[in-house]
Amino acid sequence: MLQERKNILKVLLNENRSAIGLWCSLAEALTTEVIAGSGVDWLLIDAEHSPNDLRSVVLQLQVAAAFPCEPVVRLPSDDPHQMKQFMDGGARSLMIPNVRSADQARAVVSAMRYAPFGGIRGFSVGHRANQFGRIKDYHRDARGAQFLAAQIECEKGVANAAEIAATDGVDSLFVGPGDLSTNLGAMGNPNAEHVQEAIASVLEAARTAGKPAGILAPQKADADRYLADGFTMVAVGSDLGLLARGADNLVASFRSEVA
């Protein structure tokens, strides 16, 4: 029988070590494979703001499995039926957007767990998540390898961050600075003072609950600052950003020479 491999992201965060991640937004297995080989600790396969579906996500999970990093799948919503499909497809680490209350967090946790352990996840004997029936006691032990990041992206989520973080089964709070700044009236400016205060309060809520906190910070100065502040699950860029900015900068370097 096969054994499920350790969730390296969960191990690092439980040891209070930093885990550096990269966003995968291009919905393409080949680019995800390139990113996965960079030495990154975790990947975010985005099914919320990218043209991903279940099949494209499964393909990316397959290529990521060749590397010592943990793929996290961000779903479009907290729909339990969708969660079941993606989890059976092998997504054991999930990020759920815009979690606003502890009740919502508990519902998400329930959707990830099987019935004997306080959940409602549908039972299937063989699927990709348990290597098609080859992982012994998968259904009993599945929770041990699972990881759940609850995204905090609005004023209500910030206000309830302490209760969300304290929810059993929530492994991390993760700040979405774009949505949070937008919802706090500072669209495109997560460094606005009141947004930074909200971000700091989410970090403190996670710390109080003994949970790690994460954030997306594609600017190195921001990422360094957040790491110094105590965020440990930090995404520092994306495949889309690396390709677009790299292409822009390369072409611009020749345009300037011509000028």
TrEMBL record:
Family matches, as InterPro entries: Aldolase/citrate-lyase_domain, HpcH-HpaI_aldolase, Pyrv/PenolPyrv_kinase-like_dom, Pyrv_kinase-like_dom_sf
Domain HpcH/HpaI aldolase/citrate lyase stretches: 20-244
Molecular-function GO terms, alphabetical: aldehyde-lyase activity; metal ion binding
The organism's place on the tree of life at top rank: Bacteria
Pfam families (alphabetical): HpcH_HpaI
Membrane-crossing residue ranges in chain numbering: none
The name this protein goes by in its record: 4-hydroxy-2-oxoheptanedioate aldolase
Source organism: Paracoccus isoporae
